[in-house]
Give the backbone structure.
Amino acid sequence: MSKYVLDASALLALLNQEKGKDRVESAVIDSVISAVNYCETLGKLIDGGMTDTDAREAVELINLPVIDFDAGLAQIAAALRPKTKMLGLSLGDRSCLALALVRNDAAITAERGWSKLRIGVKIEVIR
């Protein structure tokens, strides 16, 4: 069973060797990621110059389980919108939080603004 749900920003910190990567590296074995955050991560890597194949391979090397974003998670993410709108959280952000809520896991992110959230999810900000 996982303990953590990674936000795309946390996974990108690990992949790009950014500040906070050590915390993500230590948690990754006990982590999962939403398919939405997986997509977001791949997109950012491609935006940074990787081919889609290289981006996919870089993420696959981490061996992080990708959890489907189904109708139930979509409903929870939508319900989080009023509570997160003031911080400008994206669908990707809310998909991470919805998955953490359902699994009763902590969400790991590099987004400092998340520390202001009070939505019933433990949030760990890596930088």
